[in-house]
Spermidine synthase (Candidatus Methylobacter favarea), 747 residues
Amino acid sequence: MTNHSAAKSDRNLSLIFLFATTLFISAALMFVLQPMFGKTLLPLLGGSPSVWNTCMVFYQSILFLGYLYAHAISTRLNHHRQMPLHGTVILISLFALPLALPENTAPPTDSNPTFWLLWTLFLAIGMPFFVVSSTAPLLQKWFANVGHHTSHDPYYLYAASNAGSLIALLSYPFLLEPNIGLVNQKDYWSVGYLILCGLIAGCAFILWKTQQKIVFSEEESDEPDNLSIYTKLHWLALAFVPSSLLLGLTNFISTDIASVPLLWIIPLTLYLLSFVIVFSKWRIKIHSLMVTLQPMVLLPFIAYSFINPAIVPYWVDLSLHLLAFFIAVMVCHGELAKMRPHTRHLTTFYLIMSFAGMLGGMFNTFVAPFIFNAVYEYPIMIVAALMLRPGMKLSITQYKTVWLRQLAFLVLLLISGSVIYLNIDDLPQYLDTIGVTLILLAGLTYAFRTQPFTLALLTGIIIFFTLGLHGLLSNTLYQKRTFFGVLSVRQSVLINEQNQPERYHEFFHGTTKHGAQRLSPNFSRTPLTYFSRPGPIGQLFTEYDANNQNWDIGIVGLGAGTLACYAKNRQNWTFYELDPSVVDIARNPAYFTYLSQCSPNAAMRIGDARLSLEKDPDKKYDLFVIDAFSSDSIPTHLLTQEAIELYFKKLKPNGILALHITNRHLALKKVLSEHARHLHLAALIQEFKPEKEIPLVVATDWVVMANKPEILEPLRESQLGNWHKLPLYFNLRPWTDDFTNIVTIWK
């Protein structure tokens, strides 16, 4: 019996347990580190979803480098040289412990912070993340040579790795974040990393002891030594599209559906779950099912998520997007798993997968924002995923249903032509007819389920025609995509007090309105939406009108510049705004004239408000207003206990802090109530709802705080609105820079 044969008779379960446990812990550490360090960096960049996506690009890039390193040493060095080299890399990585941001780090305020963010991540966690990234392919390659009876097909260990990723990702928001502060999280992660290093040493010892040779496993393979270019490119496409689709969907749901931090985790969870399933023993049956389901789900997905998303609740729309995404990723990854090669090419396979993942992230982060003014990469990848269905080659050359394709495209062309010749004012009366026709065409896509090329082409035409139609109807005057989201200015019509139509401009961040202005000269200085005179902030200015002539006022968040129209001649106003593009829009009189008419000399401070405010003198402001939103979510670092203490440090002894907390998803009043109790502050709240319908006056929630109750007493006793004390909430841990948890304040 040869050494190889003897080795193959090894059925010891402890080998599987050791390697699977090591891979599980490595993946878990990787996916705890990602949200943990993302949360560490979010306060420096205003809580933007792009921070998460940029972090993902960094993780994917280091993952690729880790896989490249694993491929290089496993193909160029024998086992006895691999282990000392890898041990040296691990020892070097220990110098990065305990994890922390570089000292005195601050993002740039006059340029895109993407490269700053990547460099900061590299300095802080680059080496430890490199080690955990290289673990999966390297240990699977080692396992292929330890002589276990399953060593010929170690890909099932990839399921253990992804299970660790999945469990870690889900445990972070629901288990770790609610119970452990950031400082302790980093300490515990460091301990876990040391345990991982010990387990890797154990795996290396097993490999050293068995003294297996790569040549033994290669003798059993009938596959050619060289992989074809087509095979490699196919792997690349099958991994690239899901990676890009993941970030595209994350951006889309954060800007166009609901900017809820927890939602960022769901697409990544589904993405990881797909790997667990496609590398499991049930992969063949499940893959066949997903290929069958994809065209079935396509009809309701296109009909309700693109053609007419307004008729379903946001959670139904979100569910459709997530379902379509999961099935698309399952089909792509299922094809990838079906094409997995012999263990001789294992590290090449994983290397191409990681390279494609990195390319997908780079496309979404570095390319798409500069060539698209909205999240168009998402629908592009929906179409690309359909092209990767089984049977693509046959689909391109198959002409049995040419007449059906021609009919579908002819109908679309007729609709497109009719819309072009319709007057924009007449278009709404034809929407029902156009919508029904588009839904019928979406149903027709099922007829092409066995023809990926035609299915993808028809789907792409429907989606992009619909997006263009929606853009036409929204009457968008300006749209720009920045690191911090999609900004747009739209023109709409209201019925004024004389029962006449009147045009006005709206400012949007994603799908959330951040201000509006009537164009009529009689009302162009009138604050609207959340800042109306009948509303809480209008009541505050009215009540203190007699003694605010010389106030110094600071505002975090510019929006359309609406609040500037409360300014008086002798007051000094300072706006703190994270995104320079918002300042450009607010100052452009073609879009909004609040600033130019009411406060043209207001100071502008670009950058994160807390970082900017630290540099200001203490006891500077009489009134400080927090109105900072990323789409519908206020950045959590502006609501921590340290943030509130900073605001009061910059306020005069009799100063007032006003906080805009209107939110569809989070009860932010609970957080502020705890701060008021712990810091012994007086606090009032008003959850305002207009008593009568007034154009562009909306419901809004505001909280005001002061050092002493008598400062706020005039406001509480006024007849201007229903101000009352913040209610007390118990069993709620105060938010700090070290600890925030949105699960406990979910509405």
Summary: Confidence is low (pLDDT under 50) at residues 1-9, 212-221. The domain at 531-745 is CATH 3.40.50.150 (Rossmann fold). The chain has 25 helices and twelve strands.
